[in-house]
Design a protein that fits this description.
Strand content: under 5%
Shape: rod-shaped
Distance between the termini: 15 Å
Radius of gyration: 38 Å
Helix content: over 70%
Order of helices and strands: HHHH
Length: 179
Amino acid sequence: MVKLLALLLIIMLAIASVAGSLILTDKINAGDKKIAKGQMLIEQGKPVLETGKAKLEAGKRKLSEGKEEYEEARDNGFIVWADKWLNGGKGFEEGRQRIAEGDKQVAQGEEKLNAAESQLKAGEQQLVQGMAQLRQARKMRVVCELGAIFLTVLSIGLGFYWRESLTRVVKRAVSPSGH
């Protein structure tokens, strides 16, 4: 009876190993799809980020040039006098407002750019972690497959080796008299 239970246990372990291998295969296939999608999103995000950096740098340059022009105009007494006399000082006030708005836009652009860079780095880090998990899952699948093969061969070998004694155990269990 012990041999029969041992053989049944080995067969159950072989089946569990096959099931584990199938489950891991399913998880690996899903992981491969997620990795591919993540790589695609990262590759799409990099050029967008570079475009954003270029736009921000262009905006900073334009703002810097505007500030220089404003300061040069403020240093020119004739322009200050002409603005006050002809325009009531509205030209310089409008210039200050435009510079303040430019500073605000540059700051917002820098915040968005920093957020995008952080998001891209986090995505790349998740991609690396996902790839490591996939490598680990592939190794575990190989272990399950080798275990299933070993346990199947073991159960077949023990079944043939113990077949006479197993036949007697089964006959005793089936016969009502026990002989």
